[in-house]
Design a protein that fits this description.
The complex is a heterodimer of chains A (313) and B (274). Chain A has 313 residues and is mainly alpha-helical. Helix content of chain A is 78%, strand content 0%. In chain A, helix 9 packs across helix 10. The longest helix of chain A has 39 residues, at 222-260. With 274 residues, chain B is mostly helical. Helices cover 74% and strands 0% of the residues of chain B. Chain B is built from ten helices and no strands. Chain B is elongated and about 75 Å long. In chain B, 50% of the residues are buried. Classes of the chains: A mainly alpha (313), B mainly alpha (274). Chain A binds chain B through residues 11, 14-15, 18-19, 22-23, 26-27, 30-31, 37, 137-138, 140-143, 145-146, 149-150, 152-153, 157, 247-248, 251-252, 254-255, 258-259, 269-270, 272-273, 276, 278, 281, 285, 288-289, 292-293, 296, and chain B through 107, 110-111, 113-116, 118-119, 122-127, 199, 203, 206-207, 210-211, 226, 229-230, 233-234, 237, 240-241, 243-244, 247-249, 251-252, 255-256.
Chain lengths: 313, 274
Amino acid sequence: MTRYLLVRALSLSLSLIVASVVIFAVIEVIPGDPAAFMLGLNATDESIANLRAELGLGGSLTERYANWITGMLRGDFGTSYTYRVPVADLILDRIWVSLPLAIFALILSTLIAIPVGVIAAATRGGAGDFSIMGATQLGIAVPNFWFAMLLVLLFAVTLQWFSAGGFPGWDNPAAALKALTLPAIALALPQASILARVMRSALIETLDQDYIRTARAKGLSRSQAIRRHALKNALIPVLTIIGLQFSFLLAGAIIIENVFFLPGLGRLIFQGITQRDLVVVESVTMLLVFAVIVVTFLVDIAYAIVDPRLRRR
Amino acid sequence: MNRLPFTLVVGAIITAFFVGTALLSLVWTPHDITELEISQRLQPASATYWLGTDQFGRDMVSMLMEGSRTSIAVALIAVGLGIVVGVPLGLAAAAARGSLLDEVIMRGNDLIFAFPSLVIAILITAVYGPSATNAIVAIGIFNIPVFARVARGGALPIWTLDYILAARTAGKSRARISAEHVLPNIANLLIVQATIQFSLGILAEAALSYVNLGAQPPTSSIGKMLAESQTMIYSNPSLAVLPGLAIVIMVLGLNLMGDGLRDALDPRLRRARG
């Protein structure tokens, strides 16, 4: 296990280094002079020179990269050119929208998908299975942002149960959760469709195993066999998918935030793009990629703990 | 293979319909969508405008035809990019299993997976500005590791078979064996995967153009239609509903076709059917 951990940790740090080099290269090297790029065509030489100094563009590429990385490690993500505040503060403000939204969606998706997948597997080939598989087929085909618009249409415009967008802040937790409910449902349902299908096929595979037959022969009913023996083993691949979906949800939240005008990381990144604020774009994408890589790493580790066979590879 | 799977038939009909209308839109649409007729704005469905008009008086049917053409073109080229780059990488990795090359290719793949295609699109757009080409690159880059993985996974068991050994003793190079013996045997897997990636590409293109990271005017795209309809969702919900439905049906058709193809092309099932 120690060896496995070491190898995985090494590949984790390697991935992070390569990812940061790629992002640095795309944002700071390819445009030529980032300062001139950010200020656009009408900039005077003087203002470009000022911004160059402000962004620390004087040094060599290696120095700038090293400064960027060590800065981020200290929690210094640079200063936003348009907002004139540290990017770290902007991120801290907005992560309290994006992160709870992703977690909320993940919980919803899991709570829906596991029972639905179990029911489909238990009624395999029957009417229940057939309609669940049909519904999940539809769920996979629906773009989540369009589904979000339909939710607005139904629950905000027609029924007026929810507001169509905006975020009141966490001072009032009930109102904040309510504002995140429609976005979370929109994010969760397509993911739940995928997860339910994984749950179903994992459980069907487990139910075909010999030890389930033994359990049935001992006199357990089908549902007892599922609850006591099959479910635990079938959950292993499902957990992996849940882990991977978290990073997907974090990225998906970027789009959904735009439907509901939620002040999250997604809105921040798009404002960064429109205002050519490369400092913001660079740091926020790095943060997102960092989150994805770390979550994947944690899933791998969790998987190895649950399933010892993997460690020996 | 006496009978084609039902899902394949339904999926293929839906897909053929969308590909057909997209191709048709190259030469003919019911109305010209580059001409804005404000007097005809927000018309309900009628004999002239089969699905009504949008807030600029553009015919919805024509918009949808051209929009799905953008979706299909972007997704198709992105799939092509994934196949052209990814499959040779996967084959090379399988041919040199366990070597440094294999390791480098597979770790490189893992790295691309760490960048959600949306993040790639954001990076590219931040520097080069939004365009259909950038959407293709963003989606296509993400397809590369998918096809590399499928090709490698499919090729590995084939490399253990006797006829590969025979080909090697006959003096064929690894590259030739990959092209002549391995590739034809994994073609089915690749076709099924291509269908899946095609449908994912359509969803991704819609998402990118919805947040204005995709095709720019005058090119029509379904994602942008949805974005524009959002402010009108109170007064004219059909403007938001129709483009979404088009995407759902298109993706559903492709997914059904993918499922059906898998059933039809899986040699084990074929043998079972006699």
